[in-house]
Amino acid sequence: TFKLRALHGPQKVGVAGSSCQDVLRKGCLLLQLPVAGSRLCLYEDGTELTADDFWSVPDGSELVLLSAGQTWQGYVSDLRRLLSAFHKPHEGLIQAARQLLSDEQAPLRQKLLADLLHTVSENIAAETRAEDPPWFEGLESRFRTKSGYLRYSCESRIRSYLREVSSYASVVSVEAQEEYSRIVAVMGRELRAAQYHGTYFDRGAKAGHRLCTPEGWFCCQGPFDVDACASKHSINPYGNRESRVLFSTWNLDHIIEKKRTVVPTLAEAVTARDGREVAWEYFYDLLFTSENLKLVHIAC
């Protein structure tokens, strides 16, 4: 006996037969599909069932009955349908997931359902406080848009880097402090002109000026010593309040370390300049731009 289902139908029927053709014919009758052009394949991997391997298939196996022109690639096909449902989730899917979660006792299933609900409940498209009030809970009233707040969030990080660079003046030799402070002031003016690179977190910014997709998805770029994140971490802080808060734990890290390498090297260059102009633009890029910055999940 086999469990049969049609490609786009949730119904499963039990069918017993003495041959592949016998099972196919009975399945078509029960699922109301035409026999002509139809065929059977294994649910797991999409392997088409033939008369030769019919008897090697274990009893109770799940089969998919395909009509002419239809294809099945096994679990991959179900995953694609699942992902399509997540892309534009409707209220029915959300309600069904909530109901399942309320009845579920197994911790792993609870975790999977909770993560699913977290994802499909995101109001990513909304941008203003009026469109998504819960997203703005806990934020000052001056923030009216999601992009505006996230720009501010990025600007705050860059400002903190500038303060660190400025505070290092006390470590520089007395003779070089004035020149060091002058260069830091020049960098500060450059940052103000660039609006502290707040566009890195702004999904409305032009490509090349932001670190996210136009929808607001950010991908972890991995630790400083690797080219990519092995865990494929991603987040959309525009989706809901929880994602916004979690995003604040992601680090905007320096590939070449700021405290141990870049700032001390800048100080050394100023001290040893011997009347020459220090190439402050080089250090500016290393300290404040995506040339030497990468967005990293806290676990990486």
TrEMBL record:
Gene3D superfamilies in the record: 3.10.20.10, 6.10.140.170
Record-given protein name: DNA fragmentation factor subunit beta
One BP annotation, GO: apoptotic DNA fragmentation
Signal peptide residue numbers: none
Keyword Cytoplasm: yes
PROSITE patterns, alphabetized: CIDE_N
Domain CIDE-N: 1-74
Subunit structure as annotated in this protein's UniProt entry: Heterodimer of DFFA and DFFB. Interacts with H1-1.
